[in-house]
Amino acid sequence: MKTINIESNTIASIFDQLHAQLGGALVIKSNEYILKINNDIAIGTICGASVENAITYIEFNITFKINSSLLYLTENVHFLHFAYCSKGELFQSFFENKKKNKLTQFQTGIFSNKIDKKSYFYFKKENEIKVSIITLDASNVNDSDLYDHLHSNFFKCPNTHQFAYISSYNLKIAKKIEELNAIEQHGLTRNLLINSIVFSILALNVEQHLSDESIVTSNSSSLTKKNMERIKEVSEFIKNNPELDYSVKFLTKKTGLPPHKLQIGFKILHNRTVADYIRNARVEAAENLIRTTELNISEIVYSVGLTSKSYFSKIFKEKYGWNPKQYKKLLNERSSSA
């Protein structure tokens, strides 16, 4: 077992320590750090950024060739780790080689250790993994509401000095991480987008904890990882095929899920009902056709699975602020003036 020691809370020092212990090539671009590794220890990439003095974001997209552990050892008793597993499995414990908490794909773990101030994350060899870890110094966050929430929810345990929570499945966070990885801008714009998305990921982690703690939303935890994967697959299918005539019977047959679980899954993943998701997918597909083709409005309406031009005009204006003809005219004017 190889142990990688992290004894700092600053992004520069963290990557210096990772580089020294794992090797590879370290690239620093503005506020971002990218460590590319291809050696006897591991193959893959570790990247990260500092969002503010109190928050760091690190993403592991890596396969270790030997069993390895990452030890966070901090001087501050108010450190929290928000770990999210996009691919593979991650294990966590507060003591080396002791009982481990397991995160599987699409799960969040929140961990703090007030006495020993240690947290181990374990990576199995030959296990391709994509994990994001937000480390937060809860004593130094600037936002007073976030400060109060963190201290009241994660540092109030009277009988234990450790806090460990494993969430139910959440695909919204995976989508935000995809957005983070897809940022193409540079400079200040890129830094601002990174900060914004990392805060969104943090907010979704906190929201998931609240949701899991709430009796009202406890039914959502009845959805398994496989259920959520089927919801994600059928969501992509609808997005890619908006013209089909969807029915509850069709969707339940395609996913193997009963109607109530379909609704719960779409609410968790998209914060929409199934019908609203289909309607939105059709409107977005229509907007793309208006921008990229010479089809007239009637042709576009039918090509996205709708039959009423007036209804289409109504829902299009609700989303984009213009009816389809006005929107097309606006695009043409912008194109002509460019």
Automatic annotation (TrEMBL):
Keywords, in A-Z order: DNA-binding, Transcription, Transcription regulation
Domain of life per record: Bacteria
InterPro entries reported in the protein's UniProt record: Homeodomain-like_sf, HTH_AraC, PchR_regulatory_protein, Tscrpt_reg_AraC-type_HTH
Annotated TM spans: none
Organism field: Flavobacterium azooxidireducens
PROSITE patterns found in the cross-reference section: HTH_ARAC_FAMILY_2
Protein name per its UniProtKB record: AraC family transcriptional regulator
A Pfam family matched in the record: HTH_18
Residue ranges annotated for the HTH araC/xylS-type domain, each copy included: 232-330
